[in-house]
Structure formats: structure tokens, C-alpha cells
Write a structure and sequence with these properties.
Elements lengths: L1 E7 L3 H13 L5 E4 L7 H5 L8 E2 L7 E2 L5 H14 L2 H10 L4 E3 L4 E4 L4 H14 L3 E4 L1 E9 L2 E8 L10 E2 L4 E10 L14 H5 L10 E3 L3 E4 L2 H4 L5 E10 L2 E13 L2 E3 L1 H4 L9 H4 L2 E6 L6 H14 L15 H11 L2 H9 L1 E8 L1 H4 L2 E3 L20 E3 L7 E2 L4 H13 L7
Parallel strand pairs: 1-2, 1-11, 2-7, 7-10, 11-20
Antiparallel strand pairs: 3-6, 4-21, 5-6, 8-9, 9-11, 12-19, 13-16, 13-18, 14-15, 14-17, 15-16, 17-18
Helix pairs in contact: 1-5, 1-14, 10-12, 11-12
Bound molecules: flavin-adenine dinucleotide (FAD).
């Protein structure tokens, strides 16, 4: 089976890459090989089913790279976003009949606020563009033979599902002139996450260290603290290692069984020290009332006590924080004098994170130094292009990761020569 271009992976970046190839080379014979029983599984789950697919504030500051220095990362991303940024995303989805809407913080969603409508629209675009798709087809090897690439592909699980596309029954080889690797990352295995992409490319490019990103933290919690599970709060947090601040963040937090979730907590995870021993000395320090100074909170609590003297809740923080959080802080404080300091700074030991299965993204991937920009071809094999989360770029929450998938997919699909 011979194709002009094969895309490995039918996630956000792979689908965008295939559509981009078709736009730039309308006569190109294109195939997407996807190991799952359907395309775009993570897109379907994104934004709690609403699909936060971009953000007005697309800047390199909202992205990280584990291996590249700040200026290399900035140059790489600026070049990429000059080619395809959020304005192009609006135009792209608008052109497919999906207008976007923005919330107050600049997050972009399909107007329907329904991720499945994005999946359906992209699927229809592939069908209309006559891009071939083969599902349950896992690429297990890439071989460079003269000027072409040969892929060994095996059937992946057999799940009876309604499919829009054909699926693979038995092992086959495929050849192509240009290959786009869009295998995503190992985060969220239940939605297709895998380390297959890193393995396929290990002979072609250096891969950085990999860390779970955007994932809840594991906290060491005694029985009293366990009662906090399910409680949300808006506050701020500092992550410390041996008393040194690693990072800080503010926003929404959610206590879960044995841990801390919520967008603001999940963004802390990529900064955790990787050494397990070291984790024993990692602490998260929570401020439940970041809008108040300590002295203001002390005055407030003492006045409150005077007003409510003799009532059950004269020594509590009910009304400032949720009742269960107040109960916990009061128990931990013991005296009213200790309550305000605890509201400003309650510490828990951190025991790593909930790991790759619970992570939304992976930090790290194919090192930027291994990739030509602006083509996204590999320096070692310029007929292989890479895009999406497989690359050592990860974004904050807010639509930055999907925007990176659209941007890098579009660029890879230009199939620019790299010399
Ligand atoms: C629960 C959840 C919610 C999220 N919400 C948001 C959000 O609201 N906004 C946002 O910006 N980002 C969000 N993200 C992150 C975002 O979904 C990803 O960054 C994005 O999907 C990455 O796109 P990708 O194409 O690189 O990888 P993927 O979407 O993971 O696609 C890779 C595809 O390649 C396939 N594949 C892998 N290896 C092979 C192989 N060897 N052969 C064949 N196929 C293979 C996989 O099955 C997969 O379908 C969320 C992620 C999760 C898990």
C-alpha cells in the first residue's frame, strides 16, 4: 500500500495535519493510521466535554519545554504561531461551520460548547477531503528505505463500535514518501495515551525526560484531612522543596481523596521534583484567603468572635471558607489565635502526583533541538515530520494544548522541505 503521505495518529494534531496536507497538496494521497476504534478521543473529552480548543492569549509565556532553554522555546513557538495562531483557529473552525465563543478569561470553545460537535465536524471534513482513515491500526515500526518510509502496522484491540471508517484486520506494511508522526503522549491511557510515539522515533530523535503534567497532586493527609475530600476553594498555593519555592499558582482547587485537584493544583505538578526521596520534602502551602493580609484576617476573626460570642460558631471561619474547610482548620488550629495564620498558610506534604494515567498532558517529548523549524521535520530524517504533544512543548490549562496541536499539525502538513 503506497501513499504520498501517511499520518500516524488521528488525534487533534494528526487530523489537522492531514487536512493541512490536503489543503496544500490537493492531489496528494493521504492516509491516517489510528490505533483506537475512533478518532479524536481526547478532543471529545476535552474541557469537560465542552472542548476548550484555543485561547486569545496565545504567547510563548503560556508554554513550557522541559529540555529547551527559554529563548530557544520562545523562538520556536513564535515562529510557529506566526504561521498559525488563534486567529487562524477561529478562521479554520469558522470555515468548517463551527463559530467559536470566548469566555471572560479568553478561553475559546465551539459555540455549541459541545466537544462531540468538533469531533463530528472534523470527521466530516476528512471524509469530504477524501482522506483515507484506517482505525485499530497501530504502527509498530518505521523503516527508512531509500527515499521512502515503510511502516509495519498491526491490528490494535478489537472493540465492537460504530465506526465512520475502515479498520485493520491483520498486520500489513504501508509505504509513503512523507510521514507525519502525531502519536500524542502517554497521558490518559484510557483515552488512547501511549508511549508508542517516543518508541517509534527513538532511532531518529532524542526524547527528553517525560513527566505527567496537569495532574492532581498526592497529599499525605491524616484522617481529619481526609474529610476535606470534595471541597472546592478559590485560593493560592506555593509548591516548596526544602523551603525553596518551586512555583506558585492561584485559582480553583479541589480536595480529592488523598490529594489536591482543580485547575490551579494540576498546573503545579510539572514542577514536582522527580526524585521520589526528594518528594518527602516537597510541601504544598495553601492560602485560603489570598485577598486578605494576615493582620486583616486576624482582626476579622476576632471581631466575628465578639459579635457571635457564646454562639456555636463564634470560633470558626464559616462564611469565609466552606464549612468543612472551616471545621478542619479550626480543629487543626486549636485556638482562635492560630486560625488566621492557618487560613493564610496550611501545609501538606506532597507525595508525587496521580501520574500519567490521571494526567491531561505530558511534559517533555521530542527535543526541539532535533526538529527543523519552520517545517517540523526531523533533522535526522527530513521526510519525517512531528507535531502535537509528542514534541517537548506543553501548555497551561485554558486551550493552550489544543492550540499547539492545531498549530503544529497545520505546519507539519505544509510538508515544507527542510533544506
Ligand atoms: C481529559 C482531558 C481533557 C483535556 N482538555 C483539554 C482542553 O480543554 N483544552 C486543551 O487545550 N487541551 C486539553 N487536553 C489536552 C489535549 O487534548 C491534548 O494536548 C491534545 O489532544 C494532543 O493532541 P495530539 O494530536 O498531540 O495527541 P492525541 O490527541 O493524544 O492523539 C494522538 C493519537 O495517536 C494515536 N496513536 C498513538 N500511537 C499510535 C500508533 N503507534 N499507531 C497509530 N495510532 C497511534 C492515539 O491513539 C491518539 O488517537 C485534555 C486532555 C485530556 C486527557
Amino acid at each position: 500500500m503506497k501513499y504520498d503521505c501517511i499520518v500516524i495518529g488521528g488525534g487533534a494534531s494528526g487530523v489537522m495535519a492531514a487536512l493541512s496536507v490536503c489543503r496544500h497538496y490537493p492531489n496528494c494521497k493521504i492516509l491516517i493510521l489510528e490505533k483506537e476504534f475512533q478518532l479524536l478521543r481526547k478532543v471529545e473529552a476535552s474541557g469537560n466535554g465542552r472542548c476548550n480548543l484555543s485561547n486569545r492569549n496565545i504567547k510563548s509565556e503560556n508554554y513550557y519545554s522541559l529540555q529547551a532553554g527559554k529563548s530557544a522555546k520562545q523562538k520556536f513557538l513564535q515562529t510557529a504561531f506566526n504561521i498559525f495562531s488563534y486567529a487562524d483557529t477561529i478562521e479554520f473552525f469558522g470555515g468548517l461551520g463551527v463559530p467559536l465563543r470566548f469566555d471572560h478569561s479568553g478561553r475559546a470553545y465551539p459555540y455549541s460548547e459541545q466537544a462531540s460537535s468538533v469531533v463530528l465536524t472534523l470527521t466530516q471534513a476528512l471524509i469530504k477531503s477524501k482522506i483515507e482513515v484506517l482505525l485499530q491500526a497501530e504502527v509498530v515500526q518505521i523503516k527508512s528505505i531509500d527515499k521512502s518510509l515503510e511502516l509495519t502496522v498491526e491490528p490494535y484491540k478489537t472493540v465492537k463500535q460504530k465506526r465512520h471508517f475502515a479498520y485493520l484486520n491483520s498486520a500489513q506494511t504501508f509505504q509513503c514518501k512523507k510521514l507525519i508522526v502525531a502519536c500524542g503522549s502517554k497521558a490518559a491511557r484510557n483515552l488512547g495515551g501511549t508511549d508508542s510515539g517516543y518508541q517509534l522515533l527513538e532511532d531518529y530523535a532524542a526524547i527528553s525526560e517525560l513527566r505527567p503534567g496537569l495532574v492532581p497532586l498526592n497529599l499525605i493527609m491524616d484522617e481529619k484531612a481526609q474529610s476535606l475530600a470534595g471541597q472546592r476553594f478559590k485560593g493560592s498555593a506555593r509548591l516548596l522543596f526544602k523551603n525553596k519555592v518551586l512555583t506558585q499558582n492561584s485559582g480553583e482547587f479541589l480536595f480529592v481523596a488523598g490529594g489536591l485537584s482543580g485547575i490551579a493544583a494540576m498546573e503545579l505538578a510539572r514542577f514536582l521534583p522527580q526524585d521520589n526521596q526528594a518528594n518527602q520534602e516537597t510541601i504544598v502551602e495553601l492560602d485560603f484567603v489570598p485577598d486578605y493580609q494576615l493582620s486583616e484576617m486576624e482582626d476579622f476573626l476576632f471581631n466575628r468572635r465578639k459579635i457571635l460570642a457564646g454562639q456555636n460558631n463564634d470560633f470558626s471561619a464559616v462564611g469565609i471558607v466552606k464549612e468543612k474547610i472551616s471545621d478542619y482548620l479550626v480543629q487543626r488550629a486549636g485556638t482562635i489565635k492560630n486560625l488566621a495564620p492557618l487560613m493564610k498558610s496550611t501545609s501538606f506534604k506532597v507525595d508525587g502526583s496521580k501520574g500519567f494515567p490521571a494526567a491531561q498532558i505530558t511534559a517533555g517529548g521530542v527535543c526541539l533541538s532535533q526538529i527543523w523549524m519552520p517545517s517540523l521535520a526531523l533533522k535526522s530524517q527530513p521526510n519525517i515530520y512531528v507535531c502535537g504533544e509528542l514534541i517537548d512543548i506543553d501548555g497551561k490549562t485554558g486551550g493552550f494544548n489544543l492550540q499547539w496541536a492545531w498549530t503544529s499539525g497545520f505546519i507539519a502538513g505544509q510538508l515544507r522541505d527542510s533544506f
